[in-house]
């Protein structure tokens, strides 16, 4: 059946033109004339910048009341990406957008999500998108590529498409071809749920927000001095006692294993892998307070609600410490489908260097025995990284001899320079949230570096990817998190996804500004950096 989505789109476009330019109020948020603009969003507005694009001028596809979403026959993963797209667009368009199996590999109408015919350059996470007047066809080699293509399609629609209530449209998509794929395999965000605890719903919302920018890993900092946030059946007091407070003395909280699984499943539905972190041997006061026997002196310290670092250590000389780690990592590994377990390893200044190295080496073996790959903060290069171990660089300068020599011996590096990627750093001296020990970081700084050529002696082939950590000593609510993450997280996401040949601050600033109306419609609390020109109404 051929459905003239394109023509229906044109009809609703003409209707919108004839109904004029007054602000139209639908639901909680009114849509400004700029947002109802009929000029389709150009390919150059997508964040992260797409790898290759060829617009076809004068051609648009219009999503209309008769648009069907077709998905690869026999693929439940493709069907669920189709369901996700329909779920996003049904509320705002008011259209039924049925999701059904495609009947062939050359669709002539609707929006198709196909696992055939993608170029090999699309790899595992890329896609090709063709937009004609009659159809949108997204082709990928893997479901993750279809999901990435859907994020691009979302951004090619007017901001009003993000509304949860029916909007007048029209819903044009610019014609042409995009072939797009990531520069780095690992594109991460980190959320510290230890200093302040965040409910599952907040983590799910953050997952949804980072997915829009093609982030594919969420690292959860699940334990620290101030709180232990994951239930461990073999050591129940970790969560019950160790999770009972937070920075500043609040009520804290923890994820049950079912909660954690819910987060893992939600992330998987957004093609995001959870990387759980249990920080050790330092940053462990919450554990040490929960079990006296984990302390070298057998005495449990009180719970801690301040913000100092470097004062706690697991007892590296006790055999029980390794039984504890084996059981904790065992339970966490069983709940975690992704390949990584992050063991922290940072700021262990209460552990002697030789004890630290022996400890990290033993913990790496424990993680490996549970079938997982170790990630650690870059301090772990002072031990002997396993060939598969990944080090996460968090320094504040572009030289680190120990990290460079580890990289030269084959250790892969995740780049999180604190002075460039730490989303809890203040934008400037007037920012009320956040800290400034690493730097003030406005958007231009967050964007203005090259992960593949930043750290002296650590070239592109040693870099697994980038990650933007969000520490929460000063952050308590979802709006706090959003304010610090946006608009810098999309900058780091673009460094992780887009070919460096697209790197251009001026063009990025424009792309980023174009996200403002979208964030406003989404109810996302972003920082209106003066370095970016935000369109009227955003
Ligand atoms: C860190 O910021 N201590 C990894």
Q: At the third CATH level, what is the topology name of the largest domain?
A: TIM Barrel
- The geometry reads as globular
- The CATH homologous superfamily of the largest domain is called Glycosidases
Indicate the multimeric state.
single chain
Description:
The protein has 538 residues and is of the alpha/beta class. It has 2 domains: 7-180, Chitobiase, domain 2 (2-Layer Sandwich); 186-522, TIM Barrel, CATH 3.20.20.80. The chain is 31% helix and 18% strand. The strands form 4 sheets. An 8-stranded parallel barrel has the order 10-11-14-15-16-17-18-19, surrounded by 7 helices. Strands 3-9-7-8-6-4-5 form a 7-stranded mixed β-sheet. The chain has a two-stranded antiparallel sheet with strand order 1-2. Helix 8 (319-335) crosses helix 9 (353-369). The longest helix has 18 residues, at 76-93. Residues 1-37 have low confidence and may be disordered. Residues 346-347, 377, 394 line the site of acetamide.
Record the SSE blueprint.
Layout: H1 5-18, E1 24-25, E2 30-31, E3 52-62, E4 69-71, H2 76-93, E5 99-101, E6 110-114, E7 127-131, E8 135-139, H3 143-156, E9 172-180, E10 186-192, H4 200-211, E11 217-221, E12 223-224, E13 227-228, H5 237-240, H6 257-269, E14 273-280, H7 285-290, H8 319-335, E15 340-344, H9 353-369, E16 373-377, E17 390-393, H10 401-408, E18 412-415, H11 418-421, H12 443-447, E19 463-470, H13 478-485, H14 488-497, H15 505-513, H16 516-522
Helix pairs in contact: 2-3, 4-6, 8-9
Residues 346-347, 377, 394 line the site of acetamide.
């Amino acid at each position: 059946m051929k459905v003239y989505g394109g023509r229906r789109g044109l009809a609703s476009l003409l209707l919108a033109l004839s109904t004029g330019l007054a602000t139209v109020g639908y639901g909680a948020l009114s849509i400004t004339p700029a947002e109802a603009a009929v000029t389709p969003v150009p390919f150059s507005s997508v964040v992260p910048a797409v790898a290759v694009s060829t617009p076809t001028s004068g051609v648009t596809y219009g999503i209309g009341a008769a648009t069907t979403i077709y998905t690869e026959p026999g693929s439940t993963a493709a069907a669920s990406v189709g369901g996700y797209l329909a779920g996003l667009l049904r509320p705002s368009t008011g259209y039924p957008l049925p999701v059904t199996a495609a009947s062939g590999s050359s669709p002539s109408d609707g929006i198709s999500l196909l696992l055939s015919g993608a170029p090999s350059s699309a790899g595992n996470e890329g896609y090709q998108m063709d937009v004609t007047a009659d159809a949108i066809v997204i082709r990928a080699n893997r479901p993750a590529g279809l999901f990435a293509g859907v994020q691009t399609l979302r951004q090619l629609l007017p901001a009003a498409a993000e509304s949860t209530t029916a909007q007048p449209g029209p819903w044009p998509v610019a014609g042409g071809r995009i072939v797009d794929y990531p520069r780095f395999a690992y594109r991460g965000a980190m959320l510290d749920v230890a200093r302040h605890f965040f409910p599952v719903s907040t983590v799910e919302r953050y997952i949804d927000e980072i997915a829009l920018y093609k982030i594919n890993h969420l690292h959860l900092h699940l334990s620290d001095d101030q709180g232990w946030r994951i239930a461990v059946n073999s050591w129940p007091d970790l969560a019950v006692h160790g999770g009972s407070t937070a920075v500043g003395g609040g009520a804290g909280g923890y994820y049950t294993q079912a909660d954690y699984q819910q987060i893992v499943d939600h992330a998987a539905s957004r093609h995001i892998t959870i990387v759980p972190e249990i920080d050790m041997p330092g940053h462990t006061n919450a554990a040490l307070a929960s079990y006296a026997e984990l302390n070298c002196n057998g005495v449990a310290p009180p719970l801690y609600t301040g913000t100092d670092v470097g004062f706690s250590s697991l007892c590296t000389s006790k055999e029980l410490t390794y039984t504890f780690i084996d059981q904790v990592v065992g339970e966490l590994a069983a709940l975690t489908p992704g390949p990584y377990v992050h063991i922290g390893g940072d700021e262990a200044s209460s552990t002697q260097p030789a004890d630290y190295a022996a400890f990290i080496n033993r913990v790496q073996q424990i993680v490996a025995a549970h079938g997982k790959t170790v990630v650690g903060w870059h301090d772990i290069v002072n031990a002997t990284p396993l060939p598969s171990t990944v080090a996460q660089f968090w320094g504040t300068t572009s030289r680190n001899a120990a990290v460079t020599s580890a990289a030269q011996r084959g250790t892969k590096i995740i780049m999180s320079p604190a002075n460039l990627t730490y989303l809890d750093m203040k934008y400037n001296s007037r920012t009320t949230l956040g800290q400034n020990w690493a730097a003030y970081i406005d958007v231009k700084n967050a964007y203005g570096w090259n992960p593949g050529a930043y750290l002296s002696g650590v070239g592109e082939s040693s870099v697994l990817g980038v990650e933007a950590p969000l520490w929460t000593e000063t952050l308590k609510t979802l709006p706090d998190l959003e304010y610090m993450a946006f608009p810098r997280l999309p900058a780091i996401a673009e460094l992780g996804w887009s070919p460096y040949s697209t790197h251009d601050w001026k063009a990025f600033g424009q792309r980023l500004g174009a996200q403002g109306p979208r964030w406003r419609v989404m109810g996302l609390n972003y920082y209106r950096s003066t370095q970016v020109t935000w369109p009227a109404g955003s």
